[in-house]
Design a protein that fits this description.
The chain is an alpha+beta fold and 175 residues long. It has one domain (2-173): START domain (Alpha-D-Glucose-1,6-Bisphosphate, Chain A, domain 4, 2-Layer Sandwich). Helix content is 30%, strand content 47%. The protein has helices at residues 24-28, 33-37, 128-136, 141-173; strands spanning 5-15, 43-50, 56-64, 67-79, 82-93, 96-112, 115-126. The longest helix has 33 residues, at 141-173. It comes from Bradyrhizobium japonicum. This is Polyketide cyclase.
Length: 175
């Protein structure tokens, strides 16, 4: 999948809360729609359910680079300080619907007592369906990637401090 990587973007922000009070999976799988919407103007809706295999799943709806995305994030690692979610996400474009694979990774590390560094990393890869989709339109993958990266990176950069603030609020409520 590495050759079909669209973006790998990572940003950090500070959380002013003790690490032992932070629980990223609990935050993620209990995030209200209003709280999710408050983390980016591009966020439309959020909810949670379970995947067919029983794993927890976060459903996120957002617009990135003009394309509506419905993400079906399944928990692949769920530790208090580290959450990894994988999604085969639906992407709705002006020319039709396709999918991309997205890995969303959130983590915290203590930098001093009562203060943590939050990292929000998003990696996306083209699926075979996506490669066929752009191929039928005559769009070279390298051109698509070059055009998509700025919007994806800007989205991640803008939501990271807002996610950190939301996680901080949740952690301080748990005190």
């Amino acid at each position: 999948m590495t050759s079909n990587q669209i973006v790998d973007s990572s940003f950090t922000a500070i959380i002013n809360a003790p690490k032992d009070k932070i629980n990223i999976p609990e935050w993620c799988f209990n995030l209200s729609e209003r709280e999710y919407q408050g983390c980016s103007p591009a966020h439309i809706a959020a909810g949670f359910t379970t995947a067919p295999d029983g794993k927890r799943m976060s459903i996120n709806v957002e617009v990135i680079g003009g394309s509506l995305m419905v993400q079906h994030y399944v928990e692949t690692l769920g530790e208090k300080d580290h959450l990894i979610l994988d999604s085969t996400s639906d992407v709705f474009t002006p020319t039709g619907r396709t999918t991309i694979h997205v890995t969303w990774e959130l983590s915290v590390k203590e930098i001093e007592p009562g203060r943590c560094e939050f990292t929000n990393r998003v990696r996306s890869h083209a699926t075979d369906e996506f490669m066929t989709f752009i191929g039928k339109q005559g769009i070279p993958f390298d051109l698509f990637r070059a055009q998509r990266q700025p919007a994806s990176i800007a989205h991640n950069q803008s939501e990271t401090p807002l996610f950190a603030a939301s996680i901080e609020r949740a952690a301080l409520r748990n005190n």
